[in-house]
Design brief:
Two copies of one chain form a homodimer.
Chain A (H helix, E strand, L loop, with lengths): L1 E6 L13 E6 L2 E5 L5 H8 L6 E5 L5 H4 L2 H10 L6 E6 L2 H8 L10 E6 L3 E6 L2 E7 L7 E9 L5 H6 L7 H5 L4 E3 L2 E3 L9 E9 L8 H5 L4 E5 L8 H7 L4 H11 L4 E4 L12 H7 L3 E2 L5 E4 L6
């Protein structure tokens, strides 16, 4: 699973700071979270394929998270995509996107909308299990957590003991149920206990909520807003429903994540990299990422 | 009058090529023509003030000319502007912009719409005389020509002969009518024949039309689309209602402009600067501009 943080900015795009959005590639297919003005350009810079974006997950309807969508869809259209693109977001997203797409009236593919309304839930795209959680912003806003599950090890001794012909082993290993000599065999009969998968969690824009640590629990990567670096910005953070570095770090600790990437920096935060040591003192494995910072997440070698 | 071409691209923004739009500054106030995705970032790069954009002229409703508008308006709003912003464009622009602004519901200033419907006409913004002309694209599209008029020289001998007190001379020179000893004096009584002013013409997207040369006549600067460099792209140009370098150059010659800036390059045109000599062979004073290319137009020293 390849992850690329396309930008690190919040509120508005700046010459040296693109707006925050995340690309996730798995098996050659892409999922995009958020799409502000300029996101399509950052995708081109990243080298990930526009054409292979199967779903766009939108956290909320503030312009810095969605204004790039009509341009992105037009560019995907020009890349000759014909398959539908899923658009997922808060209740009302279908109307919002249709309104924005007044300047993109003729896309060569369908848009398939999913409107989220529950406080939390789960859906699956391209084998990725995507959990969502309602956050605490000035408007309804969801965090997303993407999990790639990993089955247990294949146990040839079990398969042999059950008398399953070797030609079926690969299918069982892939998770398929097979029929042989009138009998059905399911993967759980020949696989060990599920192994640790991969998990990436993305939360912006929000105040801290009690549910966030559980939501991000044991993530390999936790991409979380840190709108303001210093604790003396707390009042501003509370008013605008954003987070301090220290608040994001606390959630990262409570959630026992492997790595925290802070993002969605306020335009008033001129040089977030100055706060690198401060951020690490709050939570050791904190990264102040650059635009287009990438990470390849791989299964443990077990 | 300061001119800044914010980008040179057409169709979609690219990592090394922002979308075409033009900023015109006069007396510290700005007018913007077109606003595609990323235009607000280019304005920041240009150093021109977002806050002082009094009017946005939109050529037509294709995304690469208007998709950046909600983000721009939000950023102007954050710069604490309170005065209205004029939005001018084809019939229907009010509905299009309102639809796009579904993600910018609370601007701290009014939008004042002007919908153009005639084949040509004129309006005035900040002392600038703005002519518009219907072009020939796949959707209704206007070219804009901005003229700063220049009055004739002040003739002190006329003022003295008329017995006008010296304290009124400055006002007359500025174009005001004054009253002195019960008599009215108008500027034309003390000014020579109007001198050459400044004129900038902006035409994109379009096929050549018979009216364009007259519209751009004697421009100091003619910013014109040259979507394709080579004449062998004619069929493509005709189908998509765009222009070749050679077609833009012919209009520049017929219009007797001082300088031609080609822009709105097709993404398929990888390196327009390769065609510099070719473009100059078509019309001598042709510039293949870079992003943020600026020019300060000044009155002749007469």
């Amino acid at each position: 699973m390849d992850i690329c943080l396309l930008g690190t900015g919040g509120t508005m795009p700046l010459p040296e700071r693109a707006l925050t959005s995340l690309l996730i590639r798995h098996n050659g297919r892409n999922i995009l979270i958020d799409c502000g003005e300029g996101t399509q350009v950052m995708i081109r810079k990243s080298g990930f394929s526009l054409n292979r974006i199967d779903a766009v997950l939108i956290t909320h309807f503030h312009a810095d998270h969605i204004s790039g969508l009509p341009g992105l869809l037009l560019s995907i259209g020009k890349s000759e995509r014909k398959e539908p693109v899923k658009i997922i977001g808060c209740k009302g997203i279908s109307n919002i996107v249709k309104s924005l797409c007044v300047i993109a009236p003729e896309l060569p593919f369908e848009l398939e909308f999913t409107e989220l309304d529950d406080e939390q839930g789960v859906f699956i795209i391209n084998e990725l299990c995507i959990n969502y959680l309602l956050l605490c912003h000035r408007v309804p806003c969801y965090g997303y957590s993407i999990t790639l599950k990993r089955a247990g090890k294949f146990l040839p001794e079990n398969a042999a003991a059950l008398g399953i012909e070797q030609k079926y082993w690969g299918l069982l290993q892939k998770g398929e149920t097979i029929e042989s000599n009138g009998k059905f065999f399911t993967p759980d009969m020949v696989l060990g206990t599920p192994r640790k998968g991969l998990k990436v969690t993305y939360c912006t824009d929000t105040r801290p909520t009690p549910e966030m640590a559980g939501f991000a629990q044991n993530s390999d990567l936790f991409v979380c807003e840190g709108m303001y670096a210093n604790d003396d910005m707390l009042e501003q953070a509370v008013t605008k429903r954003h987070m301090l570095f220290s608040e994001a770090a606390k959630i990262a600790r409570d959630a026992n994540v492997s790595e925290l990437w802070l993002t969605h920096f306020s335009p008033s935060l001129k040089d977030p990299y100055e706060y690198k040591d401060f951020a690490s003192s709050l939570f050791e494995n904190t990264v102040i990422p650059y635009e287009l910072q990438c990470k390849c997440l791989e299964f443990e070698r077990k």
